[in-house]
Design brief:
Elements lengths: L1 E2 L6 E2 L22 H13 L5 H8 L4 H15 L3 H8 L2 H11 L2 H13 L6 H10 L2 H15 L3 H8 L2 H11 L11 H16 L6 H8 L4 H5 L14 H8 L1 H13 L6 H11 L4 H12 L3 H8 L2 H10 L4
Antiparallel strand pairs: 1-2
Helix pairs in contact: 1-2, 1-3, 2-19, 4-5, 5-16, 6-7, 6-8, 7-14, 9-10, 10-12, 11-12, 14-15, 15-16, 15-17
Length: about 325
């Protein structure tokens, strides 16, 4: 099997399958006992002063699947909703993170999209962040969760909140038709490069449909082979999609850095990225962050946040 020099991308007519490595910071808790966790949480909620430290300690050391078991056990034992109980006792950003941790991944993605599209203005950056970084299956689950939670389809929301080329790109991403393999087809890469060049250079106006089709159907490794052709969309709204396709860890490291640079901190970005990537690739994001900026993500969180928000964000970064 041939290998591209200096890369991990394999050239083959056959796709090989292997169990993916775990790059998250939160793994299933060993010797997990949801009944014990219910006791801990009930005591923390009902103490004279809410014991936020215990709540944080339990939730950031349990996987999402384990948190769902805790929710079911809590309701079975107390007759109450754990999310409702915590919502009534917690405040501000800590409440936001805790409630996010109690949602299933697809529910949380749906919540993020809903928040980005309701009210005045649409947060296009957040929509691209979610759709560009999720797998095909996660996008399908997101659409199901969105319809169930909010009574609208994602297509309907996109049509009402966006327009033009951006809307076309979002609809293409919702098809969840991206190649997720690691095989690089050099012949296809040459064909894509030619089409991209023709679409961007030989027309006064860029033929964006070509970019949309290639960006939303090719794998990340495949897109890197046409990397130089995307320079013509540097100032285009699709540049965020390009960068995410090339390297998700670098993409999210940059998002986190921008959330903390300069005056003020975008807590929403910190919470959203750390919760969503904690069981996916947050270890890789943390490593990439230090390589890119010369400081650890944890140190930047210490510098830019405080109190219980700081503690829960550091907890999501893992034990180290």
């Amino acid at each position: 099997m041939a290998v591209i020099q200096g890369s991990n991308f394999e050239l083959s007519s056959q796709v090989t399958h292997k169990k993916p490595e775990f790059h998250g910071t939160i793994a299933p808790y060993p010797n997990f006992n949801p009944r014990k966790d219910v006791i801990f949480l009930e005591e923390a909620i009902n103490s004279r002063n809410v014991d936020e430290d215990t709540i944080i300690s339990v939730l950031v050391q349990r996987s999402n699947e384990q948190r769902q078991e805790i929710k079911r056990a809590f309701e079975a034992d107390t007759g109450k909703s754990l999310a409702d109980e915590l919502k009534s006792e917690l405040r501000s950003h800590l409440e936001d993170v805790v409630l996010a941790l109690l949602m299933k991944p697809a529910q949380y993605d749906a919540f993020i999209i809903r928040k980005a599209t309701k009210g005045f203005g649409t947060n296009e950056d957040v929509i691209v962040e979610v759709l560009a970084s999720r797998t095909n299956q996660q996008i399908r689950e997101l659409q199901e969760a969105f319809k169930e939670e909010y009574g609208q389809t994602m297509e309907e929301v996109i049509d009402s909140e966006t327009d033009g080329d951006f809307a076309l790109a979002l609809h293409a991403m919702l098809k969840a038709n991206k190649n997720e393999g690691h095989i690089v087809d050099l012949a296809l890469a040459k064909k894509d490069a030619r089409e991209l060049f023709e679409a961007g250079e030989e027309h006064k106006d860029i033929d964006i449909s070509v970019f949309i089709d290639i960006l939303t159907t090719r794998s990340g490794p495949q897109l890197t082979q046409s990397k130089h052709c995307f320079n013509m969309v540097m100032c285009c709204m699709f540049w965020r999609l390009v960068k995410c396709s090339w390297s998700k860890p670098a993409f999210f490291a940059e998002r986190l850095h921008k959330a903390m640079e300069g005056h003020g901190t975008c807590e929403d970005t910190l919470m959203r990225v750390l919760v969503a990537r904690s069981e996916v690739d947050l270890k890789k994001i943390i490593s990439e962050f230090e390589l890119m900026y010369g400081k650890t993500l944890q140190q930047c969180i210490l510098d830019d946040t405080k109190g219980h928000l700081e503690k829960i964000l550091l907890g999501l970064c893992g034990p180290n």
